[in-house]
Specification:
This protein folds into two domains: 81 residues; 241 residues, BirA Bifunctional Protein, domain 2 (2-Layer Sandwich), CATH 3.30.930.10. Helix 1 packs parallel to helix 4, helix 2 runs antiparallel to helix 4 and helix 5 packs across helix 10. It contains eleven helices and twelve strands. By secondary structure, it is of the alpha+beta class. The chain is elongated. The longest helix has 40 residues.
């Protein structure tokens, strides 16, 4: 069987093919079901064993050669097409980049960083905890009795339990105070840390949302008093609001987890409908505080006869509203890019106590 003419014919057509469609036509004519080489392969059955020993390897070699030539032709055509594209598609890397829209930091994230930076300068660490808590961490360990109104489903989100599930009930934490209990149990005393994070309560209006952000802190040692608490909060407010003339007023109050307890007001004015911190004859409540209740210390594994401390709590969203003039808390969660562009902060302006918070 002389295959030299067949070989020369199809190798020539492959070399002359100008595009992939032409190459495919050559492949079908030579190697398709009815192609010339395929028909030659079918003739092997009619040959004697001796003839097949010679013709079989020759046909297989021709088939492989044509397949390789077609693959090489396709690769060559692809390279030529890419080279042609590169002649028209190019980029001058020396040109100035196109202007891009820069993202911004949400006010809640910004204020959280500001508060963390300030308390970090005062020697407080940062602790976080789970947002789904048992009612022991969220209520019992904090000296909140079973009949307290905050433990009802009108105020607290309880996790659904299956029928026959006798495990302790779980809730979406209503404050970050459970992190204080976990911190005391893990590290003992002395202690000094803050607990920022999301909390959940069944409430929704202009100044309340079902999910908001809170920051609580505590300091425990053997000689801590209300005087230390007052100094700490004054230093925080002076740094956060960036006003030297800060004046705080402590009003007696009641919280189950502190004794004595105090609401903290800051001096301000509302002249012309605009809030001004540090001046005027008005007072505005900004946080709650007090000395940690002995039962809370005991729940945290700390002996109240040897140690004492103070605790405080404040709303991060509320602090952002006061400092940056945001009128409606619900706007924090509307995902309105126009609002975020107006109230947002540059991503690289990281707040520090010494370099400035909101510059």
């Amino acid at each position: 069987m002389d295959l030299s003419d067949l070989r020369g014919k199809y190798l020539g057509q492959i070399g002359d093919a100008a595009d992939e469609a032409s190459l495919e036509a050559v492949r079908v004519a030579a190697l398709g079901k009815k192609g010339e080489v395929s028909l030659k392969m079918r003739e092997l059955g009619k040959m004697t064993p001796e003839e097949r020993q010679t013709a079989g390897p020759a046909l297989n070699a021709l088939k492989d050669e044509l397949n390789n030539a077609i693959a090489a032709g396709k690769a060559s055509l692809a390279d030529a097409a890419l080279a042609e594209r590169l002649k028209t598609e190019w980029l001058d890397v020396t040109l100035s980049p196109r202007p891009t829209q820069q993202g911004s930091i949400h006010p809640v994230s910004q204020v959280t960083e500001e508060v963390t930076a300030i308390f970090g300068e005062l020697g407080f660490g940062v602790k976080e905890g789970p947002q789904i808590e048992t009612d022991w961490y969220n209520f019992d360990a904090l000296n909140i009795p079973a009949e307290h109104p905050t433990r009802t489903e009108m105020d607290t989100f309880y996790m659904k339990r299956g029928e026959g599930d006798d495990r302790p009930p779980h809730v979406l934490r209503t404050h970050t105070s459970p992190v204080q209990i976990r911190g005391m149990l893990n590290d003992g005393a002395p202690a000094r840390f803050i607990c920022p994070g999301r909390v959940y309560r069944a409430d929704y209006d202009q100044t309340h949302t079902p999910m908001f952000h809170q920051l609580e802190g505590l300091a425990i040692d053997k000689d801590i008093s209300m005087a230390n608490l007052k100094w700490c909060l004054e230093e925080f407010c002076r740094a956060f609001f960036e006003v030297e003339g800060i004046e705080l007023r402590f009003r007696a109050s009641h919280f189950p987890f502190t004794e004595p307890s105090a609401e903290v007001d800051i001096r301000c004015s509302w002249g012309g409908g605009q809030l001004k911190i540090g001046a005027g004859d008005d007072w505005m409540e900004i946080l709650g505080s007090g000395m940690i209740h002995p039962k809370v210390l005991q729940a945290g594994g700390i002996d109240p006869d040897q140690w004492q401390g103070f605790a405080f709590g404040m709303g991060i969203d509320r602090l952002a509203m006061l400092k940056y003039g945001i009128p409606d808390l619900r706007a924090f969660f509307d995902s309105d890019l126009r609002w975020l562009k107006h109230y947002g902060f540059a991503a690289l302006d990281v707040p520090t106590a010494h370099g400035g918070l909101s510059a």
